[in-house]
Amino acid sequence: MAKTTTRQSRPDKGDGPGNACSAGGSDLSYSEAQTALELALAQLQAPDLPVETMGELYQRARGYADRCEQLLNQVEQSINLWDPEQSETAPYPMEP
């Protein structure tokens, strides 16, 4: 019987279309997505970056940024204010 192993994609690796970021990094935590975004942005700023890889790298960075935004929106929705003096009103999102 053959033993199967699964390989997890790392946010700091650019292994091409099969990596976690091709799905928008949807399985990454905020910290992982933020770190991967910072690494991708640093790579995009490299003066010796081949033109052929710019588009793919940009798409990966966009996926990481979208994941961070998605997680922040989830947290924002879960943080609500509720005034116990006005129990008839529903909780509402906190305004900055």
What's the topology here?
Blueprint: H1 30-44, H2 51-78, E1 80-81, E2 92-93
Antiparallel strand pairs: 1-2
Please characterize this protein's 3D structure:
- The protein has 96 residues and is mainly alpha-helical.
- The chain contains two helices and two strands; from the N terminus they run ααββ.
- A two-stranded antiparallel ribbon has the order 1-2.
- α1 (30-44) runs antiparallel to α2 (51-78).
- The protein is rod-shaped, with a radius of gyration of 19 Å.
- It starts with 29 loop residues before the first helix and ends with a strand.
Q: What would you say about this model in short?
A:
The chain is mainly alpha-helical and 96 residues long.
Structural class: mainly alpha
- What is the radius of gyration computed over CA atoms, rounded to a whole number of angstroms? 19 Å
The whole-number mean of residue pLDDT values reads 76
Distance between the termini: 58 Å
Range of strand content: under 5%
Number of helices, counting only DSSP H or I runs of 4 residues or more: 2
How helical, in percent, are the residues?
40-55%
Q: Count of DSSP E strands?
A: 2
Keyphrases for this structure?
96 residues; mainly alpha; two-stranded antiparallel sheet; 2 helices; rod-shaped; disordered N terminus
